[in-house]
Amino acid sequence: MSRIGKKPVELPKGVTASLSGQTVEVKGPKGTRSFTATDDVTIALDGNAITVTPRGTSKRARAQWGMTRTMVANLATGVSEGFKKELEIQGVGYRAAVQGNILKLSLGYSHEVNFEVPAGVTVTTPKQTEIVVEGIDQQVVGQVASNIREWRAPEPYKGKGIRYKGEFIFRKEGKKK
Q1: 72: exposed, middle or buried (C-beta count within 10 Å: 0-12, 13-18, 19+)?
Q2: 111-131: pLDDT as tens digits
Q3: Do residues 140 and 148 make contact, with C-beta atoms less than 8 angstroms apart?
Q4: What is the pTM of this model?
Q5: How far apart are CA 2 and CA 170, in angstroms?
Q6: What is the pLDDT of residues 20-71, one digit of tens each?
Q7: 30 burial class (0-12, 13-18, 19+ CB within 10 angstroms)?
Q8: I want to staple 87 with a disulfide (CB 3.0 to 4.6 A). Which of 9, 34, 131, 172 is the partner?
């Protein structure tokens, strides 16, 4: 029995939802998002709440139940509040700057890295060593943050690189003489 799937998704103020077949469309102050569920679950709109129930007792139906409820909850959160990932840059001479649609990263390579920001995501740099990725789609925001981090993942000896804010990097001791 899904513990997550049992709870209905309460829509925040200013958010409206419409249901057509297996597709849920959610509109809010930040935009519009939609999600199409599989045929293993039934979606119902009850006033200001969306409920998801499985259409059987198969393992797949039970798995889709919790996942679908979470996807619908993420739609509601995305169009009302949005999602945000913060990255920190550590290392001498490592810095970031945004110019229009391009994030310019100086990461110790012989060249500057130009990262093109995809549509639907905003990237800002409050400081030279901080990057903030924001958007209404949680999956896209996380993927963009991961792609930026890939350019110079933190290494375990000096801790240099791009890391998520608050991420702990396990440090190793260097070789001894």
Answers
A1: buried
A2: 999 999 999 899 999 999 999
A3: no
A4: 0.87
A5: 35
A6: 989 999 999 999 999 999 999 999 998 889 999 999 889 999 899 999 999 9
A7: middle
A8: 131
